[in-house]
Write a structure and sequence with these properties.
There is one protein chain. By secondary structure, this protein is an alpha+beta fold. The protein folds into five domains: about 90 residues, DNA Primase, Chain A; about 140 residues, Alpha-Beta Complex (DNA primase DNAg catalytic core, N-terminal domain); about 120 residues, Dna Topoisomerase Vi A Subunit, Chain: A, domain 2; about 70 residues, Pheromone ER-1, CATH 1.20.50; about 120 residues, DNAb Helicase, Chain A (Orthogonal Bundle). Helices cover about 55% and strands about 10% of the residues. The strands form four sheets. Strands 1-2-3-4-5 form a five-stranded antiparallel β-sheet, sandwiched between helices. A four-stranded antiparallel β-sheet has the order 6-9-10-11, with helices on one face. It has a four-stranded parallel β-sheet with strand order 13-12-14-15, with helices on both faces. Strand 7 and strand 8 form a beta hairpin. Helix 17 packs antiparallel against helix 18, helix 23 crosses helix 25 and helix 26 packs antiparallel against helix 27. The radius of gyration is 32 Å and the shape is globular. About 35% of the residues are buried.
Length: about 600
């Protein structure tokens, strides 16, 4: 964790934290369900199928028991959106309607300034492409193309569609007038350096319809360009930049997020126009995977909104391959996935334009298949179902997917379906599934022999188990007392009066107590969520994380406090008695009778 920023006043940061309910903020990213006093959901920071991510509204902190991540509302935004501390503070200030006073910020990171500049340049480029499409004669063919595809003027405006002229340097010339040099455009993937004919630059996107690509917050981070003819590549995306990484983005998610959460379902398609056509006809829970193989990072984005996925990729060979790979990624992450196979090899855009949105929704609702059914359909198109060899080949393509199913009921149902379609007995299919399972037994056997490799993290991060230390009564009392002090500053004052706040020898405890004392002396609220921003030591931060998710029974709180203080006092007395006895033995050995007499008097007072 980092210390508080030097250019945002501490009192403003505390006001923003207090005005930002952590449950509401995290609910924008994670589907949370109330469980007792807390909320739980699937951790957005590692892949899991069983929820181990807890959010405490009382303490305004979060903690994952699977991967160990934890913190307050600021650290959550920093981790989930890759923000710096000042950026997270400002984002929550906007959300809470709190104004941050203008203060010089000499320590602001160069990377943060670079990102802000990149957003500005992308926005300017987007405006240029939009203007050309609307007003320039060079875009006449592009306008006709979009009209033929049924894209309305309102939709063009909503999705900020533009056009890159065919000339070599239209964008470069425009940007230079706005004081944006070509070298800067190259860094953002908008221009390319010449490799022949001397130094210089030229536009990356030429004679293409331009689709801005947004991050989940709605900022332009890159572009996709489509040709108007049959030249290749048909689609050209921005290269990886400081803002753009296509494996971490989903096209249209910023526009679809609310509807996805409302319907508890997302439809994933391949292309920009698939998304745009769906949204235009009112099917707004649709996103596209930017023409790349579906990734875990894209899955993490969707986990914020739903676990119900329908894949509606093209039905060509590339689309089928991408569908199967995407299903595996999503299934591993705990999604419930169905697949729509669009009749006639059409894509969603073409099918909706020809058949209407109602037919497409009917496919999604009534014709969406499990992976096993989908793979069976594809295999039956390739192999002869009436021959024994054909049946064997079809089964061979489907059985691995059955074997990988985590739900035994779904697995049995898939076996029954495949047997029925191949006119075979369920026992025969089950035997083949078991044979396939035995082939992988050695691999799983290795995992079983090493429990440290097995955890709730399907990302296979190997977190070896740490031996659980047996805690004595004093250690338990110290831990419980510190947890209660973190909840109640009045108890902090009481403990200081009765036994002193330095009641522990553990350095991490002392770090937390010292910080709380400093904050109280400054008149600041030492609420647990406020401590996270002020702790720099990782071991102390990890300890605070673990303490914050432990609960002390509130109905027995006065007795627990009394018992903790009593236990610590008695242990201190015991240690003093043992020390006096040790010193008395030394005095005996050295025959220092006067010292022994003094020590005996002290010992008598203690007992």
């Amino acid at each position: 964790m980092i210390y508080l920023s030097g250019f945002i006043p501490e009192e403003i940061i505390d006001e923003i934290r207090a005005g930002s309910d952590i449950v509401n903020v995290i609910s924008d990213y994670v589907r949370l369900k109330k469980q007792g006093r807390n909320f739980m959901g699937l951790c957005p920071f590692h892949h899991e199928k069983t929820p181990s991510f807890i959010v405490s509204p009382d303490k305004q902190i979060y903690r994952c028991f699977g991967c160990g991540e934890g913190g307050n509302v600021f650290s959550f935004l920093m981790k989930i959106d890759g923000l710096s501390f000042p950026e997270a503070v400002k984002a929550l200030a906007r959300r809470a309607g709190i104004t941050i006073p203008e203060v010089d910020d000499p320590e602001r990171s160069a990377r943060s300034r670079e990102r802000e500049r990149a957003y500005e340049v992308n926005e300017l480029a987007k405006n240029f492409y939009q203007y050309v499409l609307k007003n320039h004669q060079a875009a006449a063919e592009a306008r006709r193309y979009l009209e033929q595809r049924g894209i309305t003027a309102e939709t063009i405006e909503e999705f900020q569609i533009g056009f890159a002229p065919a000339s070599w340097d239209s964008l470069i010339q425009f940007m230079q007038k706005k004081d944006n040099p070509p070298a800067e455009l190259e860094q953002l993937g908008l221009a390319l350096a010449r490799t022949k004919g001397g130094p210089g630059y030229y536009d990356r996107f030429r004679n293409r319809i331009m689709f801005p690509i947004w991050n989940p917050q709605g900022k332009v981070v890159g572009f996709g360009g489509r040709v108007l003819d049959n030249s290749l590549p048909k689609y050209l995306n921005s290269p990886e930049t400081i803002l753009f990484n296509k494996s971490h983005l989903l096209y249209g998610l910023n526009k679809a997020a609310e509807k996805i959460r409302q319907l508890d379902q997302v439809i994933i398609v391949e292309g920009y126009l698939d998304v745009i056509t769906c949204h235009q006809v009112g099917i707004k829970n649709v996103v596209a995977s930017l023409g790349t193989a579906f990734t875990k990072e894209q899955g993490k984005l969707l986990l914020r909104y739903t676990q119900q996925v329908v894949i509606a990729y093209d039905t060509d060979a590339a689309g089928v391959s991408a569908t199967i790979k995407g299903w595996q990624v999503l299934d591993d992450m705990g999604f419930r996935v169905k697949i729509v196979s669009i009749p006639g090899g059409k894509d969603p855009d073409e099918f909706i334009r020809n058949q209407g949105p109602e037919r497409f929704l009917e496919l999604v609702k009534n014709k969406a298949l499990s992976l096993c059914d989908y793979k069976t359909d594809r295999a039956m198109e390739k192999f002869d179902i009436y021959s024994l060899e054909g049946k064997f080949k079809i089964a061979s393509e489907v059985i691995p997917s059955i074997r990988n199913m985590s739900n035994e009921i779904e697995k049995d149902e898939a076996i029954m379906k495949l047997a029925k379609r191949l006119h075979l007995s369920p026992e025969a299919i089950k035997t083949e599934v078991d044979k396939y399972a035995r082939k992988t037994r050695n691999y799983w056997g290795k995992l079983d022999k090493n429990p440290g490799l097995r955890n709730n993290n399907s990302n296979s991060v190997q977190n070896p188990k740490i031996p659980k230390e047996e805690k004595d009564a004093r250690s338990k009392a110290e831990e419980s007392l510190l947890i209660l002090m973190l909840e109640d500053k009045d108890l902090f004052i009481r403990v200081n009066e009765e036994i002193g706040v330095h009641f522990s020898s553990r350095q991490e405890y002392l770090n937390i107590i010292k910080l709380m004392n400093e904050m109280l002396e400054k008149g600041l609220d030492c609420h647990p969520a406020a401590l996270f921003d002020r702790i720099q030591d990782k071991a102390t931060l990890d300890l605070l994380n673990s303490l914050m998710v432990k609960e002390i029974p509130q109905e027995n709180k006065p007795k627990v406090i009394q018992d903790c203080i009593k236990t610590i006092k008695e242990d201190e007395q015991r240690k003093k008695r043992e020390e006096l006895l040790r010193r008395m033995e030394e005095a005996d050995r050295s025959q220092d009778h006067e010292l022994r007499k003094q020590l005996l008097i002290e010992y008598s007072k203690l007992i």
